[in-house]
Amino acid sequence: MSAQKWHNGLRFQIVVLLTIALLPLGAVAIYQTNRVEDQAEQSAELALLALTARAARTEELMLERASGVTRFFATVAPDFIVHPNRCAEELTSFVTEYPVYSFIGIFPISGISDCSSAAAPVDLSGWDDFQTSLQTQERAIIVGNQPLLGDTPVFVVSEPYYTKGVFSGFVSLAVPRERLPEPTDSIESLGLVDLLTFNAQGDILTARSGLEAARAELPKDRALQLLNTTKGVAFSGPNAREEQRTYTVTPIQGTPVTVMGIWRTDETVADKLDAFIKPAVFPILMWFASMAVAMLSIYTLVLRPITRMRRNMDAFSKDRSIDKEKSQGAMPYELQALTDNFDSLTDAIMREEARLEDTLREKNVLIKEVHHRVKNNLQLIASIMNMHIRTAKHRETKSVLSRVQERVLSLATIHRDLYQSHDGGRVNAGNLVKEIVAKSVEMGISGEIEADVQTDIDPVMLYPDQAVPLSLLVAEALTNVMKYLGTNGSLKPQVITTLKQDGTRCTLTVMNSIGAHEDQESTGLGAQLINAFAIQLGGTPKVEQTDTHYTFTLEFHVEEFEPEVRDF
Predict the structure, then answer these.
(1) Across 177-243, where does the E strand assignment appear?
(2) Beta strands 140-144 and 154-163, pairing class
């Protein structure tokens, strides 16, 4: 069985396909979750903007009143400025009556005012902000850093005035910062850190916690002048101390002033991770639930029946056994039909195999009977030839009949081994060679001669197509050995027979000593038979002869059984 790859499994492929199928639903769920969170965040921002506007109501009223005062005096400034003494008295009386303001004055284009609440003339001609206001000729609220405007920190509300439609200067009103209200406890409990106002130039006008504390709470990566907008916005970011804050910015209508609320944001790394993971929780839970239901269904309806069927297939292929246990639970009718078909198939295979085994057994019995009868017939022929040998009067006739009888007996030996073989019609050629050597030496050497017979024979299994010519070749070779066997000096006659197998290659070697022997007439038939048998074995004989020894060698390959090709 080939190695099974995990990614080819049914479970893995079902999980992948279901994941792909659920991917759009998960994307929609994440989108909807993010949308809801965005809406919730927008609602929270709107709520913070509303709280900021509510918290800055005091500053807004104060700035609106200050703007209203400057606009009023801007309408009467042309009349006031021509009567400096009366103007100073009126403005001084106004500041005294309204102590929320520390200074008010009417400044012509020259920047020197004799009409103010101050006891002496005030010169703003060298004040950069005043020169900038002259260039813009627009309403402005700026930070007052002139000692002439008072000893306490102030911001100045300036309103341009006109004489007969011609720009003539500004009415400036100074508001001390120290008189601003403190934030209420209800707003602080919601997380308000500071509330400040700033002008279009990005200068802080008011800060409830003080200017130094306010500067530390400003956004690190945004300038105030860039936040002067006409509508409310909210954003989050670090302050100058790298602390996370939420900032709400809303303009004060009718003035160039913007209010900024700074809110505490208790957002940690865990909060950020939670905000990232939360939208994916529902899709992940949906995926797990879908996978659980799908895998339970697949296991119950498909995997368990298929696993049981595969187990039965493996058992049947291994030892022809089948688990007859009834499957538990309902099985789909498609798989039930497949299981029934497999059971029918296994029954048919087992019946067919039983029939084939019976047929093979009968065939083997018939083949053995044929080999047995052939062996008996060959032995009968050998016995008849033996009778002729006994009655023959000429030595040459006896020799010829004896050689023929040996060949017949060799064939009979092969058929006897085939009759006794239990190895698929093959015979042990090594045993045949041993028997032929023993019989040839026994018949070819008289009892008076003592010979040195050596054998080294492997148990080579051959089909009859090679066993028959091999045994006949060995018989002919040993017949020649017996004919020319001799001694050399004081040595014994020596006969060495080997049959070695190396894989599919076999080597037959027959060697004998030569010496003084009786000359015998040769017909050359033995050599012809040896060459013919060697050709049948698919090998080429090799002969080496020295003064003392004669060696016959044959190499051939063990062939597999090839059935005869029928021509019909």
Answers:
(1) 192-198, 204-207, 233-238
(2) antiparallel
